[in-house]
C-alpha cells in the first residue's frame, strides 16, 4: 500500500488525525481490531509511533476512535438517497450495506462481534450505531411499510425491527464469509422481503 | 444460597465435577462469565480453591466447561417434546427457550455476546451450539414449514434460518431485559409467526 502524504507536507493536527482515522478504517478491511496496532498504523502511515500516541493517547483510545469512525461511515453510506419510494430507498440502502460489509469484512465483524463482547466503550458505540440505524429506519421505510400493513409504531413493532437488524447483520456477514452460491441479487431480494415478512404477522 | 453437600459425603470425582458445573451454570443466572471466578464458585460450593483448580485446571478451562454445559442445557431444554405437529412442537420449544433465557439471563448474554467476542474456544462452543439448534430445526419444524411453502432445503433457506436464529436471540434477550409492555404470550406469537414470515418470500 502506498504511504500517506509525507509528514513534511504541513497539515493541521485535525486534518492529520482525520487522515489517520481513515487509514485505520481502511486497514480494518483486511484485519481484525485486535490485529490493528499502533505499530501497524505507524508503518502504513509512514510516521512515528510517538506521533500516533500523541494523536490518540493509546491503543484503546485509538481503537475506540477507529470503531466510532467506522460506525459513522456505515451510517453515512446507508443513508436513504431520497430517490423513489421509501421501500425503493430501503432497497438502495440494503445494497450499499451489503457492499460496505463485503469491502470492510474483517473490520465490520470486529465491530459487531468484537464490540459486542468487548470493552464497555466499544459496546456503547455498537449499541448507538445499531440504535441510530434502527431509528432512521423508523422515520422512513419501516413507518411506510408499517402503515401499509395497518400497523402503528408500537413497542412490539420496535422489538421485531430490532430483531430484524440482528437478522440482517447475521445473514450479510455469513453471506460475505461464504456465499453458498446465493447471488448478490437473490440476497438483496431476500433481505428486502424479510422486513414485511417479519412485520406482517403483527397486523391487527 | 444454601451450600452444596458437605465435602465429607463421598462422591466420585466425576459426580462432584458435574455438581460443580451445575452450580456454575446456576451462578451464571445472576452474573456474567467475567464475574464468575473460581473464588466465587469455591465460596458457594463450600470447598477450597485448590480443589477447584484440581477439577478444572484454571479459570479459562472452568469457563469453557461451564459455557459448554450451559449450551448443552439449552439444547436439552429446547428439544421438541414429540407431542402434536412439528409447528406445535416448535411453539413449545420457543416457550421453553424464552423461559430459559429469562431464568439464566446474565449467563445467556455471556454466552451469546461474550463468547461471540471472546476466546476462540468460547466462540467455537457458541458456533456449535447455534449450528446444533439450527440443524435440529431443519430436521423438524423448518422442514415441515418449508414443505408447506413448497420450499426445499436450499443454501438460501439455510442462510435465512441462520439469520432467524440471530433474530430470535436478539428479540428474546431484549424482551427479557425490558419487556416494553409486550406480554409473554404476544412475544411467543410473534416469534412463532416470524419463521414463516421470513421464509414465505422464498416461495417459487
TrEMBL record, chains A, B:
DNA-binding region per UniProt: 37-56
Keywords carried by this UniProt record: DNA-binding, Transcription, Transcription regulation
SUPFAM superfamilies linked to this entry: Homeodomain-like
Top-level taxon in the UniProt lineage: Bacteria
Domain HTH tetR-type stretches: 14-74
GO MF entry, a single one: DNA-binding transcription factor activity
The name this protein goes by in its record: TetR family transcriptional regulator
Protein source organism: Nocardioides aurantiacus
